[in-house]
Amino acid sequence: MSSSPAAVADPVRVALIGAGRIGTSHAQTLARRVTGAQLVAVSDPRPEAARALADLLGVRAQPDVHQLLGDPEVEAVVISAASEAHADLIVTAAEAGKAIFCEKPMAQHLEDADRAIGAARSAGVCLQVGFNRRFDRSFAAARKVVLDGGIGTPQLMRSLTRDPGLANPAGVPLWTVFLQTLIHDFDMLLWLNPGAQPVQVYAAADALVAPAFREAGLLDTAVVTIRFDNGAIATAEASFSASYGYDVRGEVFGSAGMVTIGDTARTSMVYHDARGLHAQTTRGDVELFLDAYTAEFDEFVSAVRDKRDPSVTGHDARRALTVALGAIESMRRGRPVELADDGAVRAAR
Length: 349
Known about the structure:
six-stranded parallel sheet; eight-stranded mixed sheet; globular; 2 domains; 16 strands; alpha/beta; Dihydrodipicolinate Reductase, domain 2; Rossmann fold
């Protein structure tokens, strides 16, 4: 892969909002790997962060997001700011007529999700949400097997995310394990069980990695059970303590077979010595999903140019959010909760 993409006749001119860890990665991907995009500006409320990233990539820094959204050169925005700002930024960007890619979660409350979706619809702009696993070749191949009937009727499902460490427990917001981490797994379970609706959620979680932060509400280890209206039972599992690497896997077991996804190995090389077998493992999401991140931005700029809905919409993000909010409510009540058709949560009978 060359350091910069080949020029295209009419690239989508994109600005990035949020120059943190994932925003920095997204900016580099847009600038260097996505042929249909031209990164033109970076915005962040921290001027030094915006300037550093902009200088690295040879674009301009614009700390004032409102000035950025008022710039006619900018056609589309990639939102990678703090999660609590996502919904408001979507609304503001939509009102400015910009196409929108927003990192997950799109919102933290259903009312805000509906507000964001409504704003994009009213403005007639593209809204795509960053569920990158849908663009990973292995996950996409597994879904095709399911759609083609290869495993029959889904009966048992599993998705897990194990992060390789919890660097700063004091900086982790409340309910992160559900709203930031497991929301990927919720989306995967919904995507791999097409046409089915989640009807019941039960969550168990604790602070096993950083127990001193339990009273502050930090939960770092969780298992969520989801029942679907087609009878399938799914589990989503998360931990912030995978010392061996970044571990993302999935499984769908059905009446006619099973499909599995995920491998922590960085390469197929295995080293054998007197102590046993050794393999290099991936250590983070960018390393594991770089091609998937690239593919989701390829999809975004294609949707913008074709004036169509992207393959991952605000409605998809809302569905995953309903499961995450159900898990939070289950934790609060200490028992399973039922999900209504509109995503509202009620106590299980």
